[in-house]
Write a structure and sequence with these properties.
five-stranded mixed sheet, DIOX_N, 23% helix, Jelly Rolls, alpha+beta, iron, single chain, binds 2-oxoglutaric acid, 7 helices, oxidoreductase activity, eight-stranded mixed sheet, binds fe (ii) ion, metal-binding
Length: 326
């Protein structure tokens, strides 16, 4: 049985881990030049904005998860002051000299540390990105507050699906690192890029988590894919956080809450920072469509441990969901 996430991922080649020293580059090197990014629209449609204190919150979150897979939340209880502190701490870390950041480079079989996104080996081109993946005590207050918020959101989502709290019995606020929810903080940095149309900040992907709480700070770059619309920019909304549905909630909800395809683009004037908080069950937890949902419909996905699913995703990326489909 898999007992730790470090056993799940195959080792990665160094050039898929170490980011560019962005302070030295004046143009996009061929290694980082992606074929056509395709056109996208901005501000045509706006994702739902949900006040978490709204008396209809369960219904609103349910509708947003069903029809968008992403929504903004206000009155989420995380103070602007803390959000600003995290952004400035992120900026401080990313502005360190490259040699210093490379001292905490993620190891080839590791999870945490400095480096390119974990999905890099799937692509021949490299992303215009650097990140710190954090577990444990760094930025402790933020992680504690985000965990509380995630538990609140989980209750709302579970309510919207009409499933019982026992179906997510691992989500005990007192759960420890092994038996409780798995949370990971990902600081993303997209330096201003001399040729943004040739670069890709983060490739299109769905998150593996149950859901992710993203803080975009002040610069646009996040895009989601909508059928019949294509890529749609989600501009940051001051004080709001963005929640997006990940694959594990897609499975738990029997595809009623589909995980949302998203990516990040870059620009040539602003150094963009984003902070993603991934919330997932422990790797030993079984994940399957909730028994309450399959009373009246057939299960679309087989049951497996979260660790097994994470392993399938690490090997097959966007094909993972179809590989566990019944
Ligand atoms: O930077 C963003 O807006 C998106 C980041 C993201 O999708 C991720 O970290 O998984
Ligand atoms: Fe993501």
């Amino acid at each position: 049985m898999i007992s730790s996430v470090t056993e799940i991922y195959p080792p990665v080649n160094l050039h898929h881990i170490a980011p560019l020293d962005f302070s030295l580059v004046r143009e996009v090197p061929d290694s980082h030049a992606w074929p056509q990014l395709g056109s996208y629209s901005s501000g045509v449609e706006m994702v739902p904005v949900i006040d978490l204190n709204d008396t209809n919150v369960v219904k609103l979150v349910g509708q947003a998860c069903e029809t968008w897979g992403v929504f903004n939340i206000t009155n989420h209880g995380i103070s602007n002051c803390l959000l600003e502190e995290v952004e400035s701490e992120s900026r401080r870390l990313f502005s360190l000299p490259s040699q210093q950041k490379l001292k905490v480079l993620r190891s080839p079989d590791g999870i945490t540390g400095y480096g390119l996104p974990r999905i890099s080996p799937f692509f021949s081109k490299i992303m215009w990105h650097e990140g710190f993946t954090i577990r444990g005590n760094v930025l402790e207050e933020y992680q504690k507050e985000m965990k509380k918020l995630a538990e609140r959101l989980l209750s709302v989502m579970v309510g919207a699906l009409g499933i019982a709290r026992e179906d997510v019995n691992w989500a005990n606020p007192l759960g420890d690192e092994v038996n409780g929810a798995q949370t990971t903080l990902q600081l993303n940095s997209y330096p201003a890029c001399p040729e943004p149309d040739r670069a890709m900040g983060m490739v299109p992907h769905t998150d593996t988590s149950l859901f992710t709480i993203l803080c975009q700070s002040s610069t646009s770059g996040l895009q989601i894919f909508r059928d019949e619309v294509g890529w749609l920019t989600l501009p940051p909304q001051t004080g709001a956080l963005t929640v997006n549905v990940g694959d594990l909630l897609h499975i738990l909800s029997n595809a009623r809450f589909p995980s949302v395809l998203h990516r990040a683009i870059v620009n040539n004037t602003h150094h963009r920072i984003s902070t993603a908080f991934f919330y997932a069950p422990p790797i030993s937890a079984q994940i399957s469509p909730s028994s309450r949902l399959i009373d009246h419909q057939a299960p679309k996905y087989r049951s497996m441990s979260c660790g097994e699913y994470i392993g399938i995703k690490a090997k097959h990326l966007e094909k993972a969901l179809s590989l566990v489909r019944l």
